[in-house]
Amino acid sequence: MDTRDITKARAWVEVDLGALVANYDSLSERAKPRVGVLPVVKADAYGLGMCPVVRALEPREPWGYAVAALTEGIEMREKGIDRRVVLLFCTPDELDLAAEAGLTPTIGDTEALERWRGVSRRVERQLPFHLEIDTGIGRCGFHYRDAEGWLPGVLEACEADLLWEGTYTHYHSADGPDAEPTREQWDRFRKCVAAFPKGAGGALHTAASASAARWPEYAADLIRPGLFLYGGVAGDLPLRPQPVATVQARVTAVREVPEGWTSSYGATYRASRPSRWATLAIGYADGVRRELSNNGFVRFGEGEAPIVGRVCMDVTVVDVTELHEVGPGSAATLIGGPQDGPTGLSTVAKRCGTIDYEILTGLTQRLPRRYTGVAVG
Question: How many structural domains comprise the chain?
Fold first, then answer.
């Protein structure tokens, strides 16, 4: 459910597309990619709405977009997005559909190369691909040390059937303070690419959000920003994004409770004084993590209210004893504002013992998204 009218919504996510575009600009300026930017819009743009995000970024004319699932790429085509779409992961049975949708798959082994070559022959046209090199992350890709074994086959396939459009690797520790792991992977990538004939390999890309912000010298031709665009960070970066997502919910009821009264399942919280509790119309079915039970805060304007008791599937109880203006219909902010604030995305993630990525992608579709800052058409 996507809507700009949230006047009657129980809870919602407000997405500041103007901030998202500003994050795109600031990261691009820092990294200064030679070819351009390949925004990662997988997982419904990290939970914020893939098509509205793409529409907001289109005026920047990115080099293309990256997705992780075939269905995501097909959805982009169905919505009329005709810019290059790189498919980061693809199963063998999906290659025919990828070709039909005009998607560019990642090829990371000789079997996938031959399958994609076979598809090219069936459709009787050259098909593009990006080649992934495994420099240490160990998930997939041609091993950087074995280029003598796989490179001849790649070159032979490109003589008539395939178009080698790009080559990339993925850093495993760019979010940490130590540059050495990333430098090591960068050196491995460069040595491997140096074995390619002149002009082969296409656009080179290595840097996702953290490495593009922290070590732009390891960014090659393209950057692949994801989390940073959406206002999240991984590690202590020298460049900070503007907050993009704000999660809000309305108060359904406010009640006075006596000292000793308990809140929610398991009675894990007991009032230490006569208190005033508000019930918010949002819970873990909306993406509010249960780890915030007795461990999180919400904001009403500048005022803070602690979460008391366990987060339920549909509601969450907060203590508003000191916030006399809060009543039924009042809106609380559960996620939003400065990263290090009480409801900042990174603060919430740390309280839950997880990462910004998981908080954003965990926001369910029961929450309508409201877009501000940039017209999305």
Answer: 2
Q: Specify the pLDDT at position 339.
A: 85
Q: Is the pLDDT confidence value at 265 over 60?
A: yes
Render 229-278 in DSSP notation, one character per residue. GGT--SS--SS-PPP-EEEEEEEEEEEEE-TT-EETGGG-EE-SSSEEEE
Residue 290 DSSP class: G
Whether residue 204 is found in the same domain as residue 262 = no
Judged by DSSP in three states, 330 sits in coil
Q: Is residue 9 part of a domain?
A: no
For the chain, the straight-line distance linking the first and the last C-alpha, in angstroms and rounded, comes to: 16
What is the token pair recorded at 26? 């600031």
* Residues annotated catalytic, as ranges: 42, 265
371: CB partners within 8 A, 6+ apart: 2, 4, 15, 17, 49, 52, 56
The answer to whether residue 12 sits within a structural domain is no
- Residue 369, class by beta-carbon neighbours within 10 Å (0-12 exposed, 13-18 middle, 19+ buried)? buried
Residue 377, pLDDT above cutoff 60: no
Q: What is the CATH number of the domain that holds 94?
A: 3.20.20.10
